[in-house]
Design brief:
Blueprint (H helix, E strand, L loop, with lengths): L11 H13 L7 H9 L4 H10 L17
């Protein structure tokens, strides 16, 4: 079973689990824009990982069809 389902938009709880699994499996990719903003704001990779593991979803995920799609 893939970590990220492609057949439906996940619920908040499912999205939380997906984010946790991706983070724990080191499957997080950082774009050039992201790296640039992290440097600007003095944010480290461990801080991002900590945020992804401990934060919570406050809005329902929605499917974005732009730039290759995703949630």
């Amino acid at each position: 079973m893939p970590i990220v389902p492609h057949d439906k938009v996940p619920t908040r709880k499912e999205a939380q689990l997906i984010i946790k699994q991706l983070t724990e499996n080191s499957k997080i990719a950082y774009t050039k824009h992201c790296k640039s903003r992290m440097e600007e704001r003095d944010i480290t990779t461990p801080e991002i990982i900590n945020c992804l593991l401990k934060s919570s979803i406050i809005e329902d995920p929605w499917l974005n069809h732009q730039n290759g799609g995703g949630y």
